[in-house]
Write a structure and sequence with these properties.
- By secondary structure, the protein is an alpha+beta fold.
- The strands form 2 sheets. It has a 3-stranded antiparallel sheet, with no helix packed on it. Strands 5-4-6 form a 3-stranded antiparallel sheet.
- β4 and β5 form a beta hairpin.
- α1 crosses α6 and α1 crosses α7.
- The longest helix has 20 residues.
- It starts with a strand and ends in a 12-residue tail after the last helix.
Amino acid sequence: MTDCAEFVVRPCAADCVCARANLVAIERTDAVAKWDGEPIATIQMAPPPRSRRHAVHEASHATAAHLFGMAIREVCIEWEAYCDTIKTGASLRSNAVMMAAGPAGERWAMNRLTSTEYPADLSDLLIAIKEARIGPCDRCKIAGCAWLSVGFDAEQDAATAAYRDFEREANELVKHPVFMRAVSEMADALMEKGTLTGAEATDIANKHMRFGAMKLND
């Protein structure tokens, strides 16, 4: 089959909140494995249709990374959507807000809405992360940053406050017109090409903002 890729199906061993409902995890065989568990099947799949929602989500991650001084390696919306950045030297806060900017930018661009995590869901998430039941989603990574920022010996209220701060900063960031113009142009390019090299994504971001123009200190 042309334009297909090989995927491995594994039992989903993660016990984090984001993975709790999943019975299996599907990953490309040439990718670094995110999930544990012995493969139970190998399948061939054609690429899914490109999604504007995914394009905006990953472009929001990439634009925030550029703004905070994290170099972009690659942005992709085919197969598994991702934004690969170089985080060396970035503050914990910058990393967390960059992670939160993906879902925040998606909600703002697609629906003109901002939102925050439902309190009960956030409580479950923070408990799971403290117990090292972590998955690869944005929410798990933001929660991990929240605990790291306050220390794992801190009360959960402190981690909740840190998570809320990251949400608030991301929600404010994505509402800025210049930020969203960069996101929109990058999303357009992703819809056309599927994958952008770091240089291509950086060229788009540079039209709208200087690399490292905003610094977030811990």
